[in-house]
Specification:
Layout: E1 2-3, E2 6-7, E3 19-24, H1 31-44, E4 49-53, H2 82-88, E5 93-98, E6 101-106, H3 114-126, E7 132-136, E8 146-149, E9 161-164, H4 172-185, H5 189-194
Parallel strand pairs: 3-7, 3-8, 4-7, 8-9
Antiparallel strand pairs: 1-2, 5-6
Helix pairs in contact: 1-4
């Protein structure tokens, strides 16, 4: 960048906050209950916690997810959202603009963590004081530790992974064990440096 004849370097972005991903093999496995339990437990210890929730389909922000039908509905042909149809046709990105905000979907050559990185940057801009982030979903992340809920094996990743039951979020000992694991992994490093009680 030129500044009065001098060349100046652009400032490097701030490092992203430490993040634990709470993920599962599907819906209704306890991800939100665990995210809430961890936010309460970490907040009670003085950590400033942020939350990022993955929504796999473009939807207006803050729109509630519909409850699943009480009884199985008769099979219907799957409806593919228009934004996904555009991606399938070859678009690099598709943006849904609503009065509530934007939802972006696209092919990201940077890999499965790029979407989470963008969400973390947005969270960081809104709340730069956050010490740690609980990210709900993002099960294909390769770089961040994951708390895996539910059946089956988690997708392969070099990052640490711990298993838990979805209903264990109501158990203080289970939540305390996950918080201790987060401390062991160094996810609360900045928080512990300034608040030794963490």
């Amino acid at each position: 960048m030129k500044d009065g004849g001098r060349t100046t370097a652009a400032a490097a972005p701030a490092p992203l906050p430490p993040t634990l991903i709470v993920c599962a093999s599907g819906r209704r496995r306890g991800k939100t209950a665990w995210a809430e339990a961890l936010v309460r437990a970490l907040g009670a210890r003085g950590a400033r916690v942020g939350v990022v929730k993955h929504h796999p389909h473009p939807a207006p922000p803050h729109a509630p997810e519909p409850d699943p039908p009480a009884l199985p509905a008769p099979p219907a042909p799957p409806r593919i959202p228009d934004t996904q149809r555009a991606i399938a046709a070859g678009a690099r990105a598709s943006v849904l603009a609503t009065p509530h905000g934007l939802a972006v979907e696209g092919l990201d050559p940077a890999g499965p963590d790029a979407e989470l990185d963008r969400a973390l940057r947005a969270l960081q801009a809104a709340a730069p004081e956050v010490d740690v982030v609980i990210a709900e979903g993002f099960r294909h992340s390769l770089r961040r530790p994951r708390l895996w809920l539910g059946d089956g094996d988690p997708p392969p990743s070099p990052a640490p992974c711990r298993r838990a039951g979805g209903t264990e979020a109501d158990c203080p000992a289970a939540v305390a064990a996950v918080v201790a694991w987060m401390v062991e992994l160094g996810l609360l490093g900045d928080a512990t440096a300034t608040r030794p009680d963490l």
